[in-house]
């Protein structure tokens, strides 16, 4: 399925929205940071927010769209361990929360493919 003409705008919006969510509710995201990472979870949460905002800006601009979309695809792969940790940590929560945490895992695949599709379309121009 080819990306729509507005696909890059939607991807940029998703990334910008995720950035805002990280800053607005850092505690939720702090708890997802794998313990193996050095430093404070809050530092990783804010670094992730900054990266998402930079990726959003890059995807929004035609000149940087291709490399930013490829970086977004890599970013979506890179945050998979946080989603795995969340699914593991939420294994004893209620059914709805447990299902939401587990559902995040396969959602990384379409996000990666979406970002890659935006990059390919930018390359074709």
TrEMBL record:
Keywords: Membrane, Signal, Transmembrane, Transmembrane helix. Residues 1-23 form the signal peptide. The keyword Ribonucleoprotein does not apply. The chain crosses the membrane at residues 42-61, 68-88, 100-119. This is Membrane protein.
